Amino acid sequence: MPLVLTEDEVMLVDAARGFLAKSAPVSALRTLRDSGDTLRYTPSVWSEMAENGFIAPHVPEAEGGLGMGYAAAGLIAEQMGHTLAPTPFLSAAIAAELVVQAGSAELKADLLPKIIAGDLVTGFAFEEGLRHNPAGTAVTFKDGKISGTKKIVLDGVGAKLLIVVAATDNGPGLFLVDPSAAGVTVRPLDLIDSRNAAEIDFADAPATPLGDAGAAKAAIARTLDVARALLAAELLGIADEAFDRTVAYLKERVQFGRPIGSFQALQHRAARLYARLDLTRGAVLKALRALDEGDKAATMLCSLSKGAMSKLAYDVMVEATHMHGGIGVTDELDIGLFYKRVRVAGELFGDAHFHTDRIAIQAFGI
After folding, report:
1. Spatial distance between the Cα atoms of 178 and 122, rounded to a whole number of angstroms
2. Segment 133-140 long-range contacts (CB within 8 Å, at least 24 positions apart)
3. Based on the number of CB atoms within 10 Å of its own CB, is 278 exposed (0-12), middle (13-18) or buried (19 or more)?
4. pTM of the model
C-alpha cells in the first residue's frame, strides 16, 4: 500500500488546487454567508467542477465514472479544505457511492451520469439526532410511504433528490424521495460553518426503494466509511491551511522588537503540531488506499483517520487562534471560518470520541 502520491495524483492535486484558489476561495464562502443565500454554493462553480472531472471521481469506469478511486476523491476533498470551498462535493460522493453499492442497474444508468455531471444535487437523509448514531433509525417506510424527521441533511436545501435511510420490517432500507413531493417539509439549518444543511420532515411522503433491500445495510456501512475518509481528508486540508497561515503570521508579527516566531515557546508549539500533521497525513491516505484496495481493515482505518483528524484539526485551530492573539477571535480574520468548519466537520459522521469507541470495539472487543 503506497503512501506516496502517483504522478497522476500529483497532477490532480495541482489541478484542483489551481481551480479552487481561483473559483472557490475562502472569500467566496464569506460572500455566500453574508448574502443570506440558503443554497450556500454557486451553481456555476459546481458545473465547472463537473467539467474538470472533480465530482465523484471514485465511481468505477464500468458504471460510467472516471474510476480514479477513493484516494483521488480524498485528494480533491483535501484541497477543498484549503479554501473551505462551498460546494455539495461530499453529498455527491455519498450519493454516488450509495447508488453504486445498492442501486438497481436501471437506477445506476439513470442517476450516476446526472450526479457526476453536477445536475442532480442529492441530500443524504441519515441522521435523526444532533449526534452521530448509526445504530438506530426511527424514520419508517411502510406501504410506499416514509414518515419521520431527519436532521442535518447536508445540501438538503435546493436538493433535487433525497436518499433516505428508513426502517422496514427487514431492517434498514434506502429510499428515493422527491423533496418537492407532498408530505416533505424542508427547513434550512443555520450551521455555524455556513454549510448548506436542512432538517426534513416526512409525513407519509411517497418513496421508491433505491434497489435490493438486502443490499441496503452493507451499502450504508460502506458509504459511511467513505464519507468519514473524505471528511478526514477535508479536515487535513483545513488544518494544513490554518497551520501555514499561522506560521506565516508568526514570522511577520513583531513584538518586543522581534518576530514572535523567534520565541522558543511558540516554536515548540508549532513544531508539535507539524509532527502530528505529518503523521496523521499518512493515516488519512492509508484509509483511502484501503478503500481502493478492498482491504479488510478499511473500516477501522476510516475510523482511525476521521477520529484522529477531528481531534488534531481542533487542536490546530485552538493553537492558531491563540497564536494570532486578539485578532484570532474576530470575524474579519479567516482563521475563524476555518475554526467553525472544523467544529462542524469534526462532528459529522462521528467525532473523535465516537471513533475511539468504535476502534476499541472492533480491535479489542471492549
Report:
1. 10
2. 134/220, 134/221, 134/224, 137/165, 137/166, 137/167, 137/172, 138/167, 139/164, 139/165, 139/166, 139/167, 139/202, 140/166, 140/167, 140/168
3. exposed
4. 0.97
**C-alpha grid cell, residue 17:** 488546487
The whole-angstrom distance between residue 329's C-alpha and the CA centroid of its chain comes to 25
pLDDT at 3: 79
CA–CA dist 245, 261 (Å, integer): 13
Domain identity same for 335 and 313: yes
* C-alpha pair distances (Å), 310 with each of 61, 219, 347: 32, 24, 8
- Write down the residue that cell numbers 435511510 correspond to: 165
140-142 and 145-154 as β-strands: parallel, antiparallel, unpaired?
Answer: antiparallel
Q: Where are the alpha helices (DSSP H) in the chain?
A: 7-23, 26-35, 43-51, 70-83, 89-102, 105-116, 216-252, 264-293, 298-323, 335-347, 352-364
Range of the domain at 132: 122-212
Residue 186 corresponds to which cell in the numbers above?
424542508
pLDDT along the chain (366 residues), means of 10: 87 98 97 93 98 97 95 99 98 99 96 98 96 91 97 98 96 97 97 96 98 90 98 99 98 92 95 97 98 96 98 98 93 96 98 95 79
CATH number at residue 151: 2.40.110.10
Q: Please give the backbone phi and psi of residue 263, each rounded to the nearest 5 degrees, phi first.
A: -80, 130
Say whether both 146 and 274 belong to one domain: no
